[in-house]
């Protein structure tokens, strides 16, 4: 058996500690599969004292992850420091400078700096791998990079923020409003320190940007992802959607179109009977559509100690086996600058608005849509306790988002609406 | 860019032609991803004349795939000849003898001869890869071999024969009996020339044997798979199961237990609301459970030109990139001989029987179960047109299959049954 692969683990939070514990518990199994032992030689974290469920004294300690990355007895640096800059980035840069391969779970940093870091690593013949950064234990990076490598990718979709999916399904199941469930999720510790990372779609948007780069051979471009959070999704929207056979999901979609790369992370309606529609709770799902393979659905835990550590180890064992893959499936320097599509492809939209109960109000709203060239597929007016306001739900035929936004602006100007309409895209999933 | 990887394609049926067409159509994309061109230099098939949708004259022709495998201008042999012996095996052996890597979609041959072929290939430093052999376009071989390499595998499950799943869901949706749907499937060309390969669970059993080998580091042992086909599943079973919140699936399950490797391919009841229960039509699903990652669900097309060709290309591009993996995730020579579990782990069972409408009949049946130490969870007696026969459905608490079989034998001996009871395992899927 060959020499051991020696790891330096930077960051001993839940995931880092999980990686160390699995490597201790499954040393023989992993050595058999990797063809060589995989062992941790050094670790680094903010505080040394804490009980992490394993004997820290078995490993060399570094206060500074940058020094960890420079150690002679480390072949591969596992970066689990977190943060889109600062020590995490310094650690990866140090690893590259010292000729170490890198495995990271840091989606924010890769979405913002992945292009330059991958280029720097690859220029030195190093691997920078990130399975754990996207959808936790779901092997979507590997599936897209390797399993679908013979496909032109038609569409990448994903429910990749477990907290948002938890909130949306909990709202539906318990009949609770967004604010209440948000507070619950916060109390349960499900939300990031800055909750807009979750509910604003930013975290999931980071992940989508990374998958899009692999799928389309384009430079990582987080700015290209149109973000819309779930904050404005109401229990009413969820119920109306359900009545019509849909579920509301924070859905990421990336497609290459004639107008450029379309990438968006937004609350969408998907058919209730589809795998995406059936996904409840914090579970994640990635859907990959290739011109040859058709639609592949991958489902699993998107976060947590075990699933994320499993994904980290997938990359570590890949490198231990001698597999050398480019970060984004082809050399980072060969990725092209993708044109950003100025708007999403046309789709049916769900519209919810509150009409003032005046004669002709509905006609005015309908006229705004008609003037914008948007036709109406279905319309429902619901019972309402407040006699002066009528909740109206519309489903349009396929419409472009700019046309829809223009129509909504005109509707607002008519003065017959109370509040702002909610518009949710219906993502089409033909079978 | 490096030298091209030169392929010899043995077998130009649907899948082989699909591989050639994709390599022609996506040459640039694949070269960018593989880091080098991938091109077909020679092909072989039974008849040369046929129109296969591409220009055959672009490639050297061999009548004999064994001669194809010996060609100097072939680096990698793609074996799509089919059959668990004969020319397919000769082709792979020739490829090994001439130092060529091999990619195959041939589950039957690998299930029966994979151990010796992998050992022979690996002894010469060659790759023998088979993503396309299991569940078509679903990247389950890669997921299990690589993505879950840091996990002790708890259970591997799969619906891996699309024809059987088509038959079972069609029976339910159309309310048609097995024989009628079987005839339909046959007319549609969905069945193998020998249909017991499909409905007898043999084809899916081959696939399970291969996954079990990767999961548990055991030598390929198709004989260890307990096979039970779907021929005895009636529309009544499907309806009763549905009434109780289950679906009937031809489900493969492999687990390593204290009693050895348990591997079975049999019709089982699974919760209707689970991803497995929701799987309808010819779609396949593989469920992998690891101690760290939890449950990963992979869903996609299990057959067909595009999906299978996509899987073949996944292996081809892997090799073009320079990745060298063992056939079963660790050197074949290091795989251990697994003990075969003498019986499956205890589970609840669904039992359907026809009782003669005599006083005391039900008591006698219940006593047989009681004597075998099996307790009854639920019992239903259904309306029946024929007054002399009462259809009875029982769901037992967890029971061992040998105990259940003994109880069924005793029941039959009581003389109160008409025909033989049907016993279907309820596979537990806690969430």
Automatic annotation (TrEMBL), chains A, B:
Q: For this chain's UniProt record, which GO biological process terms are given?
A: methionine biosynthetic process; threonine biosynthetic process
Source species, domain of life: Bacteria
The EC number on file is 1.1.1.3
Q: Which Pfam families match?
A: ACT, Homoserine_dh, NAD_binding_3
Q: Which residues form the ACT domain?
A: 350-431
Q: Where does NADP(+) bind?
A: 10-17
Write out the catalytic residues in the record.
Answer: 207 (proton donor)
Give the Gene3D superfamilies listed for this entry. Answer: 3.30.70.260, Dihydrodipicolinate Reductase, domain 2, NAD(P)-binding Rossmann-like Domain
**Residue sites binding NADPH per the record:** 107
Q: Which InterPro entries match?
A: ACT-like_dom_sf, ACT_dom, Asp/hSer_DH_NAD-bd, HDH, HDH_cat, NAD(P)-bd_dom_sf
GO: which molecular function terms?
homoserine dehydrogenase activity; NADP binding
Q: Does the keyword DNA damage apply?
A: no
Name this polypeptide is given: Homoserine dehydrogenase
Q: What is the lineage of its organism?
A: Bacteria, Pseudomonadati, Pseudomonadota, Alphaproteobacteria, Rhodobacterales
Q: Which gene encodes it?
A: hom
């Amino acid at each position: 058996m060959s020499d051991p692969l020696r790891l330096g683990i930077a960051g001993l939070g839940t995931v880092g500690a999980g990686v160390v514990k699995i490597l201790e518990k499954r040393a023989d199994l992993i050595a058999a599969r990797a063809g060589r032992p995989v062992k941790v030689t050094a670790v680094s974290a903010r505080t040394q004292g804490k009980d992490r469920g394993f004997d820290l004294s078995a490993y060399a300690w570094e206060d500074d992850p940058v020094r960890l990355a420079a150690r002679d007895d480390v072949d591969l640096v596992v970066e689990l420091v977190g943060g889109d800059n600062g020590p995490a980035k310094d650690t990866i840069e140090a690893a590259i400078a010292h000729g170490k391969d890198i495995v990271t779970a840091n989606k924010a940093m890769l979405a913002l700096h992945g292009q330059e870091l991958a280029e720097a690593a690859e220029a030195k013949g190093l691997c920078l791998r990130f399975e754990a950064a996207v959808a936790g234990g779901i092997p979507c990076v590997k599936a897209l990079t390797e399993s679908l490598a013979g496909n032109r990718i038609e569409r990448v979709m994903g429910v990749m923020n477990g907290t948002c999916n938890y909130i949306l399904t909990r709202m539906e199941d318990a009949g609770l409003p967004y604010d209440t469930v948000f507070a619950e999720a916060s109390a349960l510790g499900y939300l990031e320190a800055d909750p807009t990372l979750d509910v604003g779609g930013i975290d999931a948007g980071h992940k989508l940007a990374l998958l899009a780069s692999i799928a389309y051979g384009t430079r990582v471009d987080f700015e290209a992802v149109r973000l819309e959070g779930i904050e404005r999704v109401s229990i009413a929207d969820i119920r109306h959607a359900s009545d019509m056979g849909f579920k509301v999901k924070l859905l990421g979609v990336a497609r290459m179109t004639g107008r450029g790369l379309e990438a968006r992370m937004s609350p969408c309606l998907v058919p209730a009977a589809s795998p995406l529609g059936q996904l409840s709770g914090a579970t994640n799902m990635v859907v990959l559509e290739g011109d040859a393979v058709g639609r592949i659905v991958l489902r699993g835990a998107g976060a947590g100690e075990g699933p994320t550590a499993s994904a980290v180890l997938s990359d570590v064992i890949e490198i231990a086996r001698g597999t050398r893959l480019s970060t984004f499936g082809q050399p980072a320097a060969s990725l092209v600058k993708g044109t950003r599509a100025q708007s999403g492809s046309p789709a049916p939209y769900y519209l919810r608005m509150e009409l003032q109960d005046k004669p002709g109000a509905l006609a005015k709203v309908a006229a705004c849509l008609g003037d914008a060239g948007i036709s109406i597929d279905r319309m429902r007016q619901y019972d309402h306790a407040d006699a002066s306001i009528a909740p109206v739900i519309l489903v349009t035929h396929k419409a472009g988002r700019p046309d829809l936004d223009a129509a909504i602006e005109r509707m607002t100007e008519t003065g017959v609406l109370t509040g702002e309409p909610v518009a949710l895209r219906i993502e089409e999933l033909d079978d």
